[in-house]
Amino acid sequence: MLMRFTAAIAFLLAGTAHAQLTDTEQRIVAAVKQRSPAALELLEQSVRINSGTLNPEGVRAVGEIYRAELDALGFKTRWIAMPPAMKRAGHLVAVHEGGPGKRLLLLGHLDTVFEKGSSVPLWERRGDRVRGQGVNDMKGGDVIMLEALRALRSVGALDGANVEVMFTGDEERGGQPLKVARADMVEMGKRADYALSFEGNSKHDGVDTASIARRSSGGWVLKVQGKAAHSMGVFSAQSGYGAIYETARILNAFREQVIEPSLTFNPGLVFGGTNVSYAEDTATASAFGKSNVIARDSEVLGDLRYLSPEQGERARQKMRAIVTTGNLPGTSATISFSESYPPMPPTDAGRKLVEIYSKASQDAGLGRIEVLDPSMRGAGDVQFVAPYTVGIDGLGAQGRGSHTDDEDLEIASIERGAIRAALLIYRLAQAPAP
């Protein structure tokens, strides 16, 4: 399958090696530019609705706005509900069937990290920028996708295209189990020749970038046990070192022995004492202990990110060995692992897809695109389909402060992003059918 992708991409690169914009492509660009004020209005309409992941009504309301846009573009739309126990809004799916040709999957998400009751303004215009809830991550990217499709439709370039769209409702806090929450996306990915994801675009050293690799998102829980006893006996053969000293030994050994490029393992929460507990629903830990008592229990909650399955397995093996061997006297420890988002390793086909994207951008006078270092971006939905197709991410808007109270967006990036995306979709759709 990878050879087929590579051959198709080579064809595209050869066909555009010295090309500028064709007449049709010039009309596509003009259509995007004509819609720029309306695109901003569409963005404002969707951003003014709180759609935190745990606000399913708000998520569905944003979905209905985008659904109406897709219906008007000739897509067949449907809403995929999730099981009630998952407590998630579900996903919006849209399909456009064309003639023979490449199949494209476009990905966005409706939810934001700003839950209902957030003090962050929904929409605050600041000159050529906008601050607001999810304005950059990723309603700006959602609007870019819709405007690109609209421009293609306006010049007849969408008629023969095979495009599937999925706007997920729980990207920021994935519903559990993720195998269920992403089952439909995986099936769509298996049908696609290319997957284009519209998470925020970022600059590196002043140059716009795109992502063809994203590290996994998962975690680990370290539990350490010692002997509760009077502190006067600490370090003795009878009382041992206690759970907190053993925890410190393990974490320092991780730092010294496990680090390698593109691999991170962050201990985000550490708590220990005579008694400890952790509340998952509030992400809150509590501990009881005294300075003159040797700690009996300690726990660490950590994050684990790696670029390939092989790298992840190496890390887990090393960490398990450190946890279970060389324990300080009077202590024992266990570690468990979980994975939410699978890794998306870089591929040659992905690099060539960025070349096509970069060429389209340069032909439109918008500058080159370079591949972003995966350590500079978190996890995203495109990772679920990466094993089955050629994926690219970062086609969305440019902004600052994603996930923070100061999240904002550069308004001009909506037009730039829509032009680039429309040209990329158009050129990919022109490739010969497999």
UniProtKB/TrEMBL annotation:
Its cofactor is Zn(2+). Keywords: Hydrolase, Metal-binding, Signal, Zinc. One of its GO terms (molecular function) is metal ion binding. Residues 212-328 form the Peptidase M20 dimerisation domain. It comes from the Bacteria. PROSITE patterns: ARGE_DAPE_CPG2_1. The keyword Hydrolase applies. Residues 1-19 form the signal peptide. The keyword Membrane does not apply. This is M20 family metallopeptidase.
